[in-house]
Automatic annotation (TrEMBL):
The keyword Transmembrane helix applies. The chain crosses the membrane at residues 7-26, 32-50, 71-92, 104-124, 131-154, 208-226, 233-256. This is Bile acid:sodium symporter. Coiled coil: none annotated. InterPro entries: Na+/solute_symporter_sf (IPR038770), Put_Na-Bile_cotransptr (IPR016833).
Length: 331
């Protein structure tokens, strides 16, 4: 029982909640704001440099042959999810308010996760090489596609502040894409070291996310975040995130089986197409949103992130038990 609870509520989730509480009680003020903003910019650059250094071209090439699988994952990640967000805006805005609705739309246009999608696919005995390829490509494509999808949805539905696609592209190129490319080009020299220290570098990734979350929530708290977002809105948002995840999980499972994918590929599709990335979403939000809009933009992502971990932990364990009962070897 304790092991199951530790899987659901991991250390990072607990620390993330502590950071939000700290930002609420002790937000950065005065000179501290400028300090944390500069430190956050450096953390974002380091985060994406290391993402680039960790991305193996061999893994990408090895998984390309599963083009039908990748196409289905990308359609859910960058078409179905955004369309759901776009279509539900008229319903969600009266329930959640403009700020949280904008955050939920942002959640819908984000790329999938890398580490957790691969980990759950492995635990469930799915197609791990295809998961590595699909998740890595999703993360890279999302750096460019997420802002474009946000521009399109905000322009068509008029939810909150708009931002220029050209301006967003320039900021993302300078703060995210350049460090990512530099990190990937350095892989011939850093690749072996990065592969040996993935656990330690994972902690660096998490520390960068925590710093960005603290900076973002500090600014939002000072601008009145918790006056804008009520407890009832948070509860409603949690219910909406549960329904969104349930819809995508059931749809991906049904479609993978209807299209005749093998069980291993079905598992990969379910876990890669249903997840949304904090590692990409938090730094991107820092660029795309500002001031009081930043905290509400991140709240749906943080809630959805925890729900997807809890649900997928149970789902992966069930897949693994079914595979074991069928005599499928551990991958």
């Amino acid at each position: 029982m304790l092991q199951r609870l530790r899987l659901v509520f991991d250390d990072f989730t607990l620390i993330l909640l502590l950071v939000v509480v700290t930002a609420t009680l002790m937000p950065a003020h005065g000179a501290g704001v400028a300090f944390f903003e500069k430190l956050t910019a450096l953390a974002i650059a380091l985060l994406f440099f290391m993402h680039g250094a960790k991305l193996s071209r061999h893994a990408i090439i090895a998984g390309v042959v599963h083009w039908r699988l990748h196409l289905l994952v990308f359609l859910f990640t960058f078409v179905a999810f955004p369309l759901i967000g776009w279509a539900t805006i008229p319903v969600l805005e009266p329930l959640l308010g403009e700020a949280l609705t904008r955050g939920l739309v942002y959640l819908c246009v984000l790329p999938g996760t890398v580490q957790s999608a691969i980990a759950f696919t492995s635990l469930a005995r799915g197609n791990v090489p295809a998961a590595i390829c699909s998740a890595s490509a999703s993360s890279l494509i999302g750096i460019l596609l997420t802002p474009l999808l946000m521009v399109w949805i905000l322009d068509t539905q008029g939810v909150g502040e708009r931002f220029s696609a050209a301006e967003a592209a320039l900021k993302i190129s300078a703060q995210l894409l350049l460090p990512f490319v530099a990190g990937h080009l350095s892989r011939p020299w850093l690749g072996a070291w990065v592969d040996r220290h993935r656990t330690w570098l994972g902690r660096v990734d998490q520390s960068s996310i925590l710093l960005i979350v603290y900076t973002a929530f500090s600014a939002s708290v000072v601008d009145g975040l918790w006056r804008m977002v009520s407890l009832s809105a948070l509860v409603t948002l949690s219910v909406v995130c549960c329904l969104l995840l349930a819809l995508v999980l059931s749809s991906t499972t049904w479609l993978a089986r209807s299209l005749g994918f093998p069980r291993e590929d079905e598992i990969t599709i379910v876990f890669c197409a249903s997840k949304k990335s904090m590692a990409t979403g938090v730094p991107l939000a820092q660029i795309l949103f500002s001031g009081s809009a930043l905290g509400p933009a991140l709240l749906p992502l943080m809630i959805f992130h925890q729900i997807q971990l809890m649900v997928c932990a149970v789902l992966a364990s069930r897949y693994a038990r079914q595979s074991q009962a069928s005599g499928i070897p551990v991958s």
